[in-house]
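Example 3.
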Amino acid sequence: MPEPVVLVLDADPSPRLGRLTGRARVLRTGAAELAARLPDADVLLVWDFTSDAVREAWPGDGPRPRWVHAASAGVDRLLCPELAASDTVLTNARGVFERPVAEYVAGLVLAFAKDLPTTLALQREHRWHHREGQQVAGSRAVVVGAGPIGREITRLLHGLGVQVALVGRTARRTIHGIEDLGPLAARADWVISAVPLTPSTYGMFDTRFFGVLQPSARFINVGRGASVVEADLVEALNRRWLAGAALDVFRQEPLGEESPLWDVPGLLVSPHLSGDTAGWRDRLGEQFVTMYELWADGSPLPNVVDKERGYVPSTDNSEDLEGT
Amino acid sequence: MPEPVVLVLDADPSPRLGRLTGRARVLRTGAAELAARLPDADVLLVWDFTSDAVREAWPGDGPRPRWVHAASAGVDRLLCPELAASDTVLTNARGVFERPVAEYVAGLVLAFAKDLPTTLALQREHRWHHREGQQVAGSRAVVVGAGPIGREITRLLHGLGVQVALVGRTARRTIHGIEDLGPLAARADWVISAVPLTPSTYGMFDTRFFGVLQPSARFINVGRGASVVEADLVEALNRRWLAGAALDVFRQEPLGEESPLWDVPGLLVSPHLSGDTAGWRDRLGEQFVTMYELWADGSPLPNVVDKERGYVPSTDNSEDLEGT
């Protein structure tokens, strides 16, 4: 029996797929040859998660991979109607990014509360200027996006004594429905977005949303850039509708040198790194190999994306969510 | 019966002592008149905790306040041998600073792990440069100083998934003795000092100490500046014996504009603000008023400093210290 073909969409650094030797033929491809090679692949590993090539190359009715795995949490870059309509299984990297992203958000919350950016700026000027920080314990957060990343952010902030409300698409158990977002955001110190990019989250953080925030609030986006109307956020910051914001994700990445976002007062810009801690590429590679072994043995795969919704639905009763 | 005289050493902003009206005569003094006024005071409130005036003004054998309260955690600036030998009760502001300082330390740990200072520097240059952060969960910390601040730091870092060892003067229950510091520091990612300034902590963080650290370690001081030999820390950073450090306290405060410390690569300088969150002065004032009411009623005071040791000894069995 021939070994299944695992096609890896991967411009440069390679995942550690050595464990597949003898179980699969691993072939690499760039974006340009992807369309030509897809029909011969049993599995597509989208290692270059910054690429839009899959949407463009996906074969309509012809032969196609039976399984596509995205080495990322979000699948918006590769999920096209033809892939959604097909019987190809789509999985994501759920499990790898939750803790790093949650720590990153906790770090931003504390950095804002303790005014660390100002401390660093004053240090450059050799200025000793005492200021009062804020206490994080007892402050209020709204986490938007009740997937595994949003849940982990909720847990970690809760552990810091923050009163956290978690908002999902629909209300269930300890999770608020999206209809509660406005009232919750209106009294929050921190609004954190960890939403996937879907038609209903596209542009959801806009002038109307920022208009309800407290002037002392901060907005943090570690979900997807296109959920934020960036011009609206800039205007809201300029009008002092909120005290600050941090964006780790953007409509267009990488952010160009000429982007006005770099210089907006109160806006902290980081290069889509919140989930990436030392060893993350190895963890992504190991996760794929483990999933491949399940697939090759005919066992059910974890992390299967609901292709209509655009994300992996949470199974509520498997979650141990401390009070929100 | 005449009202007791509460003398407040306070250059400028006044604590909210209105609740003492009718129970005490509240008089204010600057450093210059302190010696002349101390003999007439029943209580001395050292509100200006940056002042060295008490050591200089303390009356030897003459009349003196029966109670001195420091609106600070440390009492090293005012504790002199004559005060130590007297029967005057000395108390501190235990309870006000623990949580803010612990949050500040957690913020520094996360900022270092996520390389936030570099992110801010790159943003100024409009440079999108992805880097990998570190995961805080699973890293190792040593917290030196087993008083209430060190214990709160331990609790908060433990909640972030850090493996924390707490080091005190002597080993007891979940606390390591000072003899374990070297071996623990040698494998720590984070060494955090929350020690009071006493003869045995003066200059304890020196070349010999920094020499045992891992090159990836960071040192954070939120205790007292003089526990660190600053020149030794600078040399250790220059030699890359450790990856970074943050000092919130210094031998001389405020740090002068000409200090070389401002420009040491890897050193984060902040102006003694870790414990000071919005409303802290009010909390200090309220704490004093509450303690005054106990004192005036002849009830025992909390937060009594052991004047030989130089700090408030912890009562171990009152502490709920989660695993270290």
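Chain B touches chain A through 51 residues (CB under 8 Å). DSSP finds ten helices and eleven strands in chain B.
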